[in-house]
Amino acid sequence: MAGLPGAARARSASPGSPPALDGSFFLSPLGGLMCAQAVLGLLVWSLIAATTYHLHAAYGWVMFVSLFFWILTLLFFVIYLLQLHQKFYMIPWPLVLLIYNAVATVLYITAFVTCAAAVQPTSWRQWDYNRRAAASFFACVIMITYGVSTFFSFRAWKGLGSNAATSQVSDHA
Asked: Which of 86, 95, 80, 98 lies closest to 172, judged by CA?
């Protein structure tokens, strides 16, 4: 679990102890990226929700992707903030985060392209145009943040920077 916050404290957390707040999680790359993804995801789906998205099928897809990954990001954020990932040590969390971030990156690519292609600059409702264009921009930015998270998740999964075999043994011994 190299590269993940709280990896050094994983030896001291027992499955029966109550969840504890990990303040250092906010300062970690994973915590900072999850905070950015939560804020950007909220911006994307709220900007789309403020338009007449139900009239355009393309925006339904953008709404689904942004809302789905916003909820999952908040769920993972709470899991890591409360150190619940240490309670469920049998789950390969670095691999779970790698798959989650990779899927989020790919689906946000489709959402960004869909949203950007559906923006009509000659819309009769100017405020819808502005919100949809802003949602396209923030979808692009969040796509990049999920890509960066995928990179860090891959490094944590591979155990780059430490010996993955010994960290697995020492974390649960």
From this structure: 86
- The pLDDT tens digits along the chain (173 residues) read 445 554 444 444 555 667 778 778 888 888 899 999 999 999 999 999 888 777 778 888 999 999 999 999 999 999 988 888 888 888 898 999 999 999 999 999 999 999 888 887 765 666 778 888 899 999 999 999 999 999 999 998 998 755 444 444 445 54
Could you give the angle at which helices 57-81 and 93-118 cross, rounded to 10 degrees? 150
How many of the other CB atoms lie within 10 Å of CB of 19? 14
Distance CA 114, CA 156 (A): 31
> What type of residue is 106?
V
**Number of separate helices (H) and strands (E) present in the chain:** 6, 0
8-state DSSP, 6:
T
For residues 151 and 160, give the distance between their C-alpha atoms in angstroms, rounded to a whole number: 11
pTM of the model: 0.78
Tell me the C-alpha distance between 171 and 173, whole Å. Answer: 6
CB-side neighbour CA atoms (13 Å) of 120: 11
Query: Where are the chain's structural domains?
Result: 28-88, 92-165
